[in-house]
Every structure is written in structure tokens, then in C-alpha cells.
Amino acid sequence: MAKLTKVKTRTSGDQTEILVLVNHPMETGRVKDKKTGELKPAHYIQTMTFEVNGTKVAEASLGPAVSKNPLTSVAVKGAKPGDKVKVSWSDNKGENGGAETAVS
Amino acid sequence: MKRRTFLKGTLAGSTLAVATGAGLLTPSAVLAGTWPKAAFDTKDAAAAINAVMGSSDAAASGDIKIKAPTQAENGAVVPIKIETGMDNVESIAVMIKNNPSPLASMVALSGNAVGFYSTRCKMGKTSPVTAYVKAGGKLYSASQTVKVTVGGCGG
């Protein structure tokens, strides 16, 4: 079950924003399945790590309250064009994914 | 592949259990890659913020900007952006007080990261959204109410 992860950067001034979009259901475990009447099991991203040129800049912890297909972003200063950006995530079922890009 | 995920899962689970058991679930533990389960499970906003920030004693600050809609038509997707001009920002947390568990998301920053975090949250009903920023060892907060017309936590 490969889940699509997209990473994009956006630079304005000396700040570079790193945007991550993951195709993920982000089930809270509180929603009932309309057909079966049973609760859908929780399935959500728990951690997301942001790296620039191999150095960790941010580690986000997400809860079930984050929307499905979450768009999350952090920003760094002093990033140069061509710097490598890597984002990886893992969820409560042990699935993980990630993507890489270069600062444009 | 299955075996690998299984091993990873058990490993992560056991470290978390050890950390909680020894009372070591501090912000540094969060930075080291442990998902703060207790903080995300609790229904008490103060307890949650205490668990991720090491303190619940926050000073109100005008230097934290929350960019969120004042009225969200769809509670399933509420974009929330937090910006601060403070130096040495260590972590940022988003709390939605009237959600089943108030802590929505938090981020631990290091290196060249600046005080900026943006995410999209689900909101069950109208609630104050509070941003907590830990900078230079001190905790600051700012709040904004978001009105929700259709809840996003399902039936």
C-alpha cells in the first residue's frame, strides 16, 4: 500500500518553506462505517521528519485530529538552491513513506 | 517486508513503553523520535501541553500569529498556520480545546528551522485554537476562536 508523498519547497526572502502532502486516510478510530455499523480502526500518521542536506530540522508529531491527506509545512532559513530536502513519515500501523526533492 | 515492519513496530512500541514507565517522556524524548502517546490521548488540554512542553504555564504573546479562518465551513479541513518572529524556537504545538483530544499536532524544531508550522486539522465543533510556542526555554501562547458550521469528526 504505497501512499503517495509529495514534497515541494517555496522560497521567499531568506526563508524556505517545505511543504509535504501525503495521501493518507487519517482515520481517527471514532468514525462508524455506515455499512457495517462498526468503528473504523484508527489509522493515522504519527511522526514526520524533515531533513535538509541530511540534518534534521524538524520532527512533527501528528495526532488523529489532523485532516486526511494532510498538507504540513515547516520553514528553514538560509537554504540554497540545490539543497536536498528529505521528508519521511510513519503511521500507527507501522507503514511509512517519504519523498525527496531539491530546493528550487 | 512484513517482518521488517513488524520488528520496527515492536521496537518503537517498547521504547515508548519504557520511556513512559520511567517518566522520561520529556520534550527531548519527543525530539528523539518517540511519539507522545499520552499527550495525544488525554482529554485535558493542560495535561497534554505539560506532556509535550514540560510545563503548562504559558505567557500570552503578541509575537505569535495564528492564521486560521474565523469561520470554517468544513470542520474536516481547517488550515492552521502558526508563525512567530521569536529566536531559538524549540517547539510549536496546536491545541483545539473542544476536540475529543485537544492536542492536534506539534513539531520539534532544530537546526536552521524558523518559527513556522502549518497543518490542516479536523475540528468537531466551534473551539478556541491555541498555539503554544516554546522558545529559549519559555512557553508562550496565543489563541483564536474558529467557528465551525459542519463538524469534521464524523458521526
List the defining traits of the structure above.
heterodimer; A: mainly beta; Immunoglobulin-like; four-stranded antiparallel sheet; elongated; B: 155 residues; alpha+beta; three-stranded antiparallel sheet; 9 strands
What's the helix and strand layout?
The complex is a heterodimer of chains A (104) and B (155).
Chain A: E1 5-12, E2 15-22, E3 45-52, E4 55-62, E5 71-77, E6 84-91, E7 96-102
Chain B: H1 2-21, H2 27-31, H3 37-41, H4 45-53, E1 59-60, E2 64-67, E3 71-74, E4 78-84, E5 89-96, E6 103-109, E7 113-121, E8 127-135, E9 138-150
Parallel strand pairs in B: 1-9, 3-9
Antiparallel strand pairs in B: 2-4, 4-7, 5-6, 5-8, 8-9
Question: What does it look like?
Answer:
The complex is a heterodimer of chains A (104) and B (155). Chain A is 0% helix and 52% strand. Chain A has strands at residues 5-12, 15-22, 45-52, 55-62, 71-77, 84-91, 96-102. Chain A has a single domain (5-102), classed as Immunoglobulins (Immunoglobulin-like, Sandwich). Chain B is α+β, with helices and mostly antiparallel strands and 155 residues long. Chain B has two domains: 1-32; 35-148, SoxY domain (Immunoglobulin-like), CATH 2.60.40.2470. Chain B starts with a helix and ends in a 5-residue tail after the last strand. The chains are: A mainly beta (104), B alpha+beta (155). Chain A binds chain B through residues 15, 17, 28, 30-32, 46-47, 49-50, 52, 55-68, 70-79, 93-95, and chain B through 5-6, 8-9, 12, 30-31, 33, 35-36, 40, 52, 76-79, 96, 99-101, 103-114, 116-123, 152-155.
